[in-house]
Design brief:
single chain; mainly alpha; 9 helices; 0% strand
């Protein structure tokens, strides 16, 4: 579990800015189609003022084609490193528990498939174990994924809820939408995470990494 938590921490450092860019790109055009301009968020959101505003999303009246590089550049230029890592706390609270659940669960499930005298489980068992462990882990941490996504949305319509940190976001979601809101998108995440980790474990089973690096494979 500690090793899994450490892996989740390292993953967050690398993937948190990517998550931020992904959400911004996926959310592009949402406000402009409603005819409402961006609103200044107390948590560091965007201002409608053209000066020192996030140029990639500030002008809702004229939708602009955005790119990940443009978003990353403008975020870093206007808000510094904290802008790129916005929502990192929520990402940390999602990824560390996910890894702490996933890796021990997968190891246990995969061990059940070992036959007597065989050092490993069959590849299809590793695939199934990875899918099942990924499915369970992603559902269990989905509430924090919802909080993370809400915090990382930069562009908000007038009157739309704003959030000031993880606790404030979770409280407002609970009050306004009820506990079921924390499971929104859970099954969509399962459709991504389950095959992703199933395939990863199956590739590991075939020893692709060891073959590329030219090292002898170790069985555990």
């Amino acid at each position: 579990m500690l090793a899994g938590g450490g892996a989740g921490l390292c993953q967050m450092i690398v993937t948190s800015p990517m998550e931020m860019l992904k959400i911004t790109l996926q959310d592009a055009g949402r406000i402009s189609t409603t005819g409402q301009g961006p609103q200044l968020s107390s948590a560091g959101g965007l201002s409608a003022a053209p000066s020192r505003a996030f140029s990639a999303v500030a002008m809702a009246a004229t939708p602009q084609r955005m790119s990940a590089l443009r978003i990353a550049y403008d975020l870093f230029r206007t808000k510094g490193l904290s802008g790129v890592y916005r929502g990192a706390g929520a990402t940390l609270l999602r990824d560390i528990p996910f890894s702490m659940i996933y890796f021990p669960l997968f190891a246990h499930l995969n061990h059940l498939g070992k036959s007597e005298g065989s050092p490993t489980s069959p590849f299809y068992w590793s695939f199934s174990s990875g899918c099942l462990a990924g499915c369970i882990s992603s559902v269990m941490v989905n509430p924090m994924d919802v909080v993370k996504t809400r915090i990382q949305v930069l562009k908000r319509a007038q009157g739309e809820q704003t959030y000031n940190g993880v606790v404030d976001c979770a409280r407002k979601i609970w009050v306004a939408e009820g506990p079921s809101a924390f499971m929104k998108g859970a099954w969509c995440r399962v459709l991504v995470i389950a095959p992703l980790f199933g395939i990863a474990q199956m590739v590991y089973y075939f020893g692709v990494g060891e073959y590329v690096l030219g090292i002898e494979r170790q069985y555990y």
